[in-house]
Design a protein that fits this description.
heterodimer; A: mainly alpha; rod-shaped; B: mainly alpha; 2 domains; two-stranded antiparallel sheet; globular
Chain lengths: ~130, ~350
């Protein structure tokens, strides 16, 4: 005979597995620090590339003015401004990454805990049936 | 109302039955129409222009997630623009890479708003995307909605200025053309106003739908539509943008109606049956307001089976039609037992 509560339990677990389960499993395989650190490293690379692209576009846009003023401008000041704005940009994105991925990690852990609890309940129903 | 709920339940049941068919079909249709729009406006690369290439690319878009479909759409656009002029392609590539690196990394789910933006723009209801984004996703989808607006307005800009952008130029003119294309985005007031309207509408819809008020979702749709309309009107008055206000007004109304449709399917509550309950545990008192969902209760149809008369049954017995019940006495309750079993199954 079909055990209705078990079917309900298994359906809930299967729905979770097919939706967020795989991603949560991958997140859950890491320690919190490793996961967030890895994501911040990726963000560092992405933000750096994006900043360089943006800088290239701005420089190309002001190409003529830049060529005319290149000998008269204070290069040290330009480099300092470039580095400071890059650091601010990077800091903003690293902060966003930290908050977003901390939240995602915590949410995934909560869901995984629920998943394992439900799996335990499921195996409990089989054990109960055996006795 | 009951009829509407019945229709909704039927649609949902048909959708859940054929979900694995509907979702790819919808994605294919959206991708195909978007690609057709792109190739009709900026179809400069022959290999990618026309219904057949669009069909093939749309098939690929159907097989991949929405974020990957947005990437494919972006790549098609960039190739088309490179075919017109190096500068236009370069600007599109830089914007596309920045978008992928900084935005899609965080929220790939709402990329469907970007994929849908050419279709909605073509049929005159681009304002539905911010409303849908605010209802279905979160406030961050303001970026996706704004990017969708930027994309379609950029396509229009290139289409309108293709002779200027596509003109053969010397090396010294490359920078001038690059500046012209960048100005087409940065100083395009229509683009800025529509993108701002979209972003604001997403935030307004999301903020209002989260409020604990009656009919919050419907009010959110209304507020989002009004916010969009106000930004468009103010933009038109200040900058004389190239938007036909009558068409925009109509588009916003249609978008609001579609938003109400989305609400009807996703968040349909019966505010006439609110229950306020109060209980406590060791640490807290709980004051809970429970709002029941609007559900359609299908009427139960009972089929009454009338027994055939004795002499007809006798004739059927002779013909062997009820052979399996031959040994059962005529009135032992077999019919009743069968009927009650059928009722239970129903």
């Amino acid at each position: 005979m079909i055990n209705e509560s078990r079917v309900r339990l298994m359906t809930g677990l299967a729905v979770y597995e097919s939706r967020e389960g795989n991603l949560d499993e991958r997140i859950g395989n890491h320690f919190r620090g490793d996961y967030i650190g890895g994501q911040m490293l990726t963000t560092f690379v992405c933000a750096t590339v994006a900043y360089l692209l943006g800088t290239f576009a701005v420089c190309f846009y002001h190409f003529e003015e830049l060529m005319l003023a290149i000998y008269s401008m204070d290069l040290t000041q330009v480099v300092v401004r470039f580095v400071v704005s890059y650091l601010l940009f990077l800091l903003a994105f690293l902060l966003i990454t930290y908050f977003v991925y901390s939240y995602r990690y915590n949410r995934a852990r909560t869901r995984l805990e629920w998943y394992y609890r439900e799996l335990h309940r499921l195996s409990g129903t089989y054990r109960k049936e055996e006795y | 109302m009951n009829n509407l709920l019945e229709i909704r339940d039927r649609i949902i049941s048909v959708y859940t039955q054929y979900e694995s068919f509907f979702i790819p079909a919808f994605r294919f249709l959206v991708s195909f129409l978007s690609l057709l729009y792109i190739s009709s406006k900026i179809g400069y690369q022959e290999v990618l222009t026309g219904p057949l290439p669009s069909l093939l690319v749309a098939l690929i878009c159907t097989l991949v997630p929405a974020s990957a479909a947005a990437v494919i759409l972006g790549l098609v656009m960039i190739i088309q623009l490179f075919s017109l002029a190096l500068e236009a392609g370069l600007v599109a590539l830089i914007l596309f890479l920045i978008l992928c690196l900084l935005y899609f990394r965080f929220t790939p789910k709402d990329a469907i708003l970007i994929v849908m933006s050419p279709v909605c723009h073509a049929i005159g209801i681009p304002y539905v995307l911010p409303i849908a984004g605010g209802l279905i996703f979160g406030p961050v989808s303001a970026v996706a909605a704004a990017v969708g607006m930027v994309m379609v307005n950029f396509i229009d800009f290139v289409h309108d200025n293709e002779t200027t952008i596509g003109a053969t130029a010397g090396e010294e003119d490359t920078v001038t053309k690059f500046r012209f294309v960048v100005d087409g985005i940065a100083q395009n007031r229509t683009l800025i106003v529509t993108a701002a309207a979209a972003a604001l509408a997403v935030i307004v819809v999301y903020a209002v739908r989260r409020l604990r008020i009656r009919y919050a979702w419907y009010i959110a749709v209304l507020c989002g539509a009004v916010a969009e309309l106000i930004v468009l009107l103010v933009g038109d008055m200040l900058y004389a943008i190239s938007i036909h206000i009558g068409a925009a007004f109509l588009g916003v109304i249609v978008s609001a109606l579609i938003g109400c449709g989305i609400t009807f399917f996703l968040f349909n509550l019966d505010y006439t049956r609110i229950e306020n309950v109060q209980f406590e545990d060791d640490d807290y008192y709980y004051y809970v307001k429970a709002v029941p969902k609007n559900v359609y209760i299908a009427p139960r149809h009972t089929v009454k089976k009338i027994n055939t008369s004795r002499h007809i049954r006798g004739a059927q017995d002779d013909a062997g039609e009820e052979g399996q019940y031959e040994d059962a006495p005529a009135d032992t309750g077999w019919e009743d037992a069968n009927r009650s079993t059928r009722d239970r199954q129903a």
